[in-house]
């Protein structure tokens, strides 16, 4: 039950990658040089509303604290074990939903024009391979140019992450999964999740078709989840990272064969069903603040210098919110102090990637089956008041 149809949230507008390589979650920058760069608020990969900082100060401080190398190692351990399951879990659902044609096993390129940055990325890729079984190939400039013949600039090289699946239509994929849910006997309803309240030993929520009751309920509403959990006594320090996208046509016979992450600027170009999608980094703003797609405005000229983009396809930029926890690990498990209430949110940049894996885990926990991964890292109690 949601206010929108399936696939209309953040999964509608992301980069469409099932990111098997994403074993290292995004830490808060800790070097003075990086903090200074972001603090000037002129970058493509990060932007912020000054007026939002008082509201975000506490969760961002916790985010910074958890990004210390010792604590970050714990985040990687919890994050990586769930990421390791993402390809198998998606393919299992996509096969049953007859949607495997939307998942392309092509990986993506993360390219660099700076030799030092490429060397650092290569070292991290080798660590991901050695410790977590992630596969990659290191490309020099000539190999990158051969792989992407429409690239208009010379780059030092790229990391080709070979494991990820690239989805040509994330909204179409989510809707295929929703159709499978209906075929298996499920029901979809639109309504207001904030009306969730206890009725006897179960739960009731108001939908457009009237009240619905169930013995158990799961809150999986992304960035809006705390609007439902807070009145029920649970308010973790969840915060949003806003992101934008725009689609473009390509000029002439130009092609983009794989998703392309510009490691120098921090945006991505992805070939999709509706054109070349340009996605931005993270924007920090107050909840409900009007869109301010300045990162898109900064990224577009750089993107046009990389590949021959033509006209915009969309009338206006799309915006979504990535629900983020300060320790970079999602919240999955039983709600504190509430019987038969379960939580599954806070996946940050990996909501699409981890949807089937998290769904399987929460289902196994609810039914008493042995969880297929250790659920301890995702325990809601770590943020209990």
Task: Provide an overview of this structure.
The protein is of the alpha+beta class and 385 residues long. The protein has a domain at 1-27 and 67-103 and 177-238 and 325-385: FAD/NAD(P)-binding domain, CATH 3.50.50.60. 32% of the residues lie in helices and 25% in strands. It has 10 helices and 20 strands. A hairpin with a 2-residue loop joins β8 and β9 (202-207). The chain starts with 16 loop residues before the first strand and ends in an 18-residue tail after the last helix.
SSE arrangement:
Layout: E1 17-18, H1 32-39, E2 46-48, H2 53-66, H3 69-83, H4 86-96, E3 103-104, E4 108-112, H5 115-132, E5 136-140, H6 141-147, E6 157-161, E7 165-167, H7 170-183, E8 191-199, E9 202-207, E10 210-214, E11 217-219, H8 225-229, E12 239-250, E13 260-262, E14 267-272, E15 275-279, E16 282-284, H9 294-306, E17 309-312, E18 318-324, E19 331-334, E20 341-345, H10 351-367
What fraction of the residues are assigned to beta strands by DSSP?
A: 25-35%
Q: State the CATH superfamily name of the domain at 1-27 and 67-103 and 177-238 and 325-385.
A: FAD/NAD(P)-binding domain
Number of strands: 20
Give average pLDDT, whole number.
95
Q: CA-to-CA gap between the ends?
A: 27 Å
Low-confidence stretches: none
| CATH architecture level-2 label of the domain at 1-27 and 67-103 and 177-238 and 325-385 | 3-Layer(bba) Sandwich
Q: What best-fitting shape do the alpha-carbon axes yield?
A: globular
CATH topology heading of the domain at 1-27 and 67-103 and 177-238 and 325-385: FAD/NAD(P)-binding domain
The description of the largest β-sheet is: 9 strands, mixed
SSE string: EHEHHHEEHEHEEHEEEEHEEEEEHEEEEH
Structural class: alpha+beta
What is the C-alpha radius of gyration, as a whole number of Å?
Answer: 21 Å
Distinct helical segment count: 10
Helix content: 25-40%
Q: Which CATH C-level class of the domain at 1-27 and 67-103 and 177-238 and 325-385 is it?
A: Alpha Beta
